[in-house]
Inverse folding.
């Protein structure tokens, strides 16, 4: 009201927008689909929060014939476990687990390769699938218990377990292991399955597991993605038969791993970047977001799931439906705000 005052307004906070300088980032359409740049403005993760990747192993170390994948750079790895050899060398002899782990935490903004989602988070490699990608419910349960019982000092940094695997058999042993994980404050995420059938696979079908299906570049359910009443969320899993973004490349999820053909010959050092499709590629995107939410301070797995479901982009029929669950994850909406104090 003073005559010498022209106007008064809140002085808003601004910050630089982050876009990684990785040379293959432009081909990672899945990151653009989930709004990764706005997400990274809020949260990039922290090694104090780890994701346990229960899979075929991860190319995380030089050991015997195995080599560390080159674009894991400064990615932090926790001591892992191999249910087959009973030791800590959870090395990948298939390719699948390395690709999954790279979606979560491939080294980012290092001027080369591809980008990961929660790339400053830690990864715990747990090998529960063999070189052909097969495992047992009891082995997966054992891997879950390893992640649950792990301590670094007196603290367990594992806040998320990713299960890009599944089968048709309901297992009490596996359900009990999941129950122990959730009771310990660990969010469990699993892929819905690639058979375009209902119901979805287990362990995704358990009520306390976040079940993830796949969309393509159009945000349409991928033709292989399983569906049903237990489906919770969607993330980009892709379709290599399509090129909806017009970049001249197939719409698979692009990340590092080694050549699966070389792996059948016992070579685990022929690394490259591969477009891979499946609900196995969608689930780790949800796991990465769960890790970012945990880093923001959300501790309860139910609260983490609710944050993702309540902010998802509704696809298909209004509200939750059996084709899309609650819809496509929107990380920047789930994370809420700039998070400058986090």
């Amino acid at each position: 009201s003073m005559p010498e005052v022209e106007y008064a307004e809140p002085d808003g906070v601004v910050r630089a927008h982050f876009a990684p300088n990785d040379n293959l980032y432009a081909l990672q359409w899945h990151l653009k689909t989930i709004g990764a740049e706005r997400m990274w403005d809020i949260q990039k993760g922290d090694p104090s929060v780890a994701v346990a990747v229960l899979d075929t192993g991860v190319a995380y170390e030089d050991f015997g014939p195995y080599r560390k994948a080159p674009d894991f750079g400064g990615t932090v790895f926790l001591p892992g476990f191999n249910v087959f050899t009973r030791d800590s060398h959870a090395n990948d002899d298939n390719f699948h687990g390395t690709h999954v782990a790279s979606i979560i935490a491939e080294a980012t903004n290092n001027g080369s390769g591809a980008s990961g989602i929660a790339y400053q988070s830690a990864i715990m490699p747990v090998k529960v699938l063999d070189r052909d990608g097969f495992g047992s419910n009891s082995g997966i349960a054992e891997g879950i218990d390893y992640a649950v019982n792990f301590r670094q000092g007196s603290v367990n940094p594992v806040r998320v377990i990713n299960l890009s695997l599944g089968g048709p058999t309901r297992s009490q042993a596996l359900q009990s292991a999941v129950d122990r994980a959730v009771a310990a404050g660990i969010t469990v995420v699993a892929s819905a399955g690639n058979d375009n059938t209902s119901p979805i696979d287990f362990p995704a079908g358990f009520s306390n597991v976040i079940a993830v299906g796949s969309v393509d570049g159009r945000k349409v359910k991928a033709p292989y993605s399983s569906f049903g009443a237990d489906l919770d969320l969607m993330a980009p899993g892709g379709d290599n038969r399509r090129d909806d973004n017009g970049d001249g490349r197939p719409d698979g999820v692009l990340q590092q791993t080694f050549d699966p053909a070389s792996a059948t010959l016992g070579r685990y050092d022929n690394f490259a970047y591969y477009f891979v499709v499946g609900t196995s590629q969608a689930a780790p995107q949800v796991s990465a977001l769960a890790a970012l939410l945990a880093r923001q301070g959300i501790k309860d797995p139910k609260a983490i799931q609710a944050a993702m479901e309540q902010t998802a982009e509704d696809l298909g029929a209004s509200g939750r439906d059996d084709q899309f669950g609650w819809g496509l994850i929107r990380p920047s909406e789930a994370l809420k705000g700039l998070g400058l104090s986090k």
User: Anything to note?
Assistant: Residues 338-342 have pLDDT under 50 and may be disordered.
